[in-house]
Amino acid sequence: MVSRAFNRQMEGYGLITAELLYRMPDHPTILQTFLWQEYDLAPDFPVLRGFLDFWSREIDGMLHSVTIAHSRLIQPAQFKLVDGVFTVH
């Protein structure tokens, strides 16, 4: 049985990590951090956009900023041909 995460990666999805800074509902001058990870498609990030829509609708903490990092976990191997031999003493 192949995992859902592996299937998503084979479909071109990559792991996205989002750091959300939001204001505490009772103390709006205090910022809180929330980290979120999921597989998503760059550059449109439909899964992240859906999550942010959910946050805006359902969560009381108003978003201050969102920082993301995205990387594809499975990608073709990269090979470079080397012409020569270098000896290090």
How are the secondary structure elements laid out?
Layout: H1 4-10, E1 14-23, E2 31-40, H2 46-58, E3 63-71
Antiparallel strand pairs: 1-2, 1-3
Summary?
With 89 residues, the protein is α+β, with helices and mostly antiparallel strands. The chain has one domain (4-71).
Q: Can you describe what's shown?
A:
- It is built from two helices and three strands.
- It is an alpha+beta fold and 89 residues long.
- Strands 2-1-3 form a three-stranded antiparallel beta sheet.
- The radius of gyration is 20 Å and the shape is elongated.
Descriptive key words:
89 residues, alpha+beta, 3-stranded antiparallel beta sheet, elongated
Tally the helices: what do you get?
2
Average residue pLDDT? 85
User: How many extended strands?
Assistant: 3
The poorly predicted ranges are none
How would you sum up the global shape?
elongated
Biggest β-sheet: strands ordered side by side in the sheet: 2-1-3
Structural class: alpha+beta
